[in-house]
Structures are given as C-alpha cells and as structure tokens.
Give the backbone structure.
Amino acid sequence: MSHYELPVFKSALDLCVYIETIVKSFDKYHKYTIGADMRTFSKDLLFGINRVGLAKDKTNALIGVRNRCEDMKMLLLLAKELQSFKSFKQFEHSSLLSVEVCKQLQGWLKSSQ
C-alpha cells in the first residue's frame, strides 16, 4: 500500500486543506503571524508523513512527525487563546482533525516497534 493511501496521510491532507481555508478568514495580523505558523505546521505534518513512507528508519521518522503533530495541537490552542479563529467551530474542527492525525501516528508508531 502506498503511503498516499494511508488513512493518516488522508487525515493530514484534510487538516492541511482545512487550515488553509480557515486562515483566509483570520484578521490581517493573525493571518500573517500565527496563521502562517499554522499553515507551515500542517504542511510539515503532511510532508513528514510522506518522508516516513520513504524512510529506512521508520520509528525515528514517526517519532519526529508525531512530535510535530503534538506541536500543532499546542499551536491551535494558542491561536484559540489569541482569538484568531472566527468561530469556536473552526477551532473545534481543526483540533479534532489534528487529534485524529496524532492518534493515527501513535498507532503507526506502536505497530512499527
């Protein structure tokens, strides 16, 4: 199975697309500060999952991507506290997507050890 077909890749892609969509609605200041970070982190997750699929040492690669996913959750929480989101629903949905990616990465990590 190609890593493009993995559920975790699809979930990370959904997160990346959703983040791109909601950051557009942030006010100018947040769009170019925390919004830029959110966009970068979500893309890093997607690219990291791609790298895990190609890595020889999958365990270390997975640990790095999983840690980046945990960082993404903290970044979303910070954005909520800064009132960057236009609605609580945006925060809720992006948080649920990131939690799903983290759970899937953790499961992949457990199965690879």
User: Anything to note?
Assistant: The radius of gyration is 14 Å.
